[in-house]
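Quick question about two entries, pasted in order.
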Amino acid sequence: MKVTIRVATIDDLEKVQELNLKLFEKEYRDYDPLLNLNWTFGKEGTKYFRERILRNDGCVLVAVVEDEIVGYLCGGIKKVESYRNLPSVAELENMFILKPFRSRGIGKQLLNEFVRWCESKKISKVKVEASASNKKAIKFYRANGFKNYTLILERDLETAE
């Protein structure tokens, strides 16, 4: 199976959004029922992906097998937190690979290409966020050099109606 990793074009926008919706549906079902499944194709989601594809501070990569996009990675340069002494940070914001193509090295290829993009932009740190219960994703990121830095904890509150 020959996999080609390339930079997404605006012509890939809808396919990237379709894959993102599949990611949202999986995350919604398995980890976070608060996700807004209408976001991806809504005004904000469309603007987000369009800007990530078109702007210089964004990076959208697609994995192609036999002329079919089977996965994508989206990320970009982030504002550096003023409380840290970092010159530049990028975030891998979302990534998804269709189920029949998982565990074939495509995620690693996408990640490696994203790291090369970051290096070309003189980025000094890459971060990623994953659902705490998504053990497969956490294992993947740790195996690829990511380390724990922060832990975000949430507590649900009873609200008055």
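Here is the second entry:
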Amino acid sequence: MTSNSLRSFAAGILIATSLIGAVYLFGPSEAKSTGKEEPAKVEKLSEDEMVKKLTSKGYVIHTEYQWNKQLEAMNEKQEDKDEAPNKKDEKTDGKVIYKTMLTVSTGMTSIDVGNALEKANIIKSGLDFYKEVEKRGVENDLRPGTFEVESGMTTDEIISTIFK
């Protein structure tokens, strides 16, 4: 390419960019149809008509108040479920023994298991449990499944129950 043809090419790009920029900045903000199709008829429905139309198609309609009330009820049920598996089972010598069903899923770590056991009042410290597991070298031998553990079990028993 010669220098004149290169300058002409650059000038063309500059002019094209300027025109596109001007149309973008100063052009209409909304696109308008240029076709000869009829515009879609917009049907204005009242609130009651909308509810009737949606419920006839199987939708359930709630007001914001009803929705929030339903969410609160669901949260209360979930809290009751979370507390239900962890219950005081027996009293021996004035000591309360807690039992829980621990579900270990794929991807959980021994830290997660320790924290879950601590939350269920089975062990005192999840971190100490993790350190013991790591000291034994079984942190990678966690078995997925559901296990029944209780606070009366020793750390050895818990580890042998949950780990391979």
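Reply: Residues 3-26 form the longest helix (24 residues). Helices lie at 3-26, 47-56, 64-83, 110-119, 126-136, 155-162. Hope that helps.
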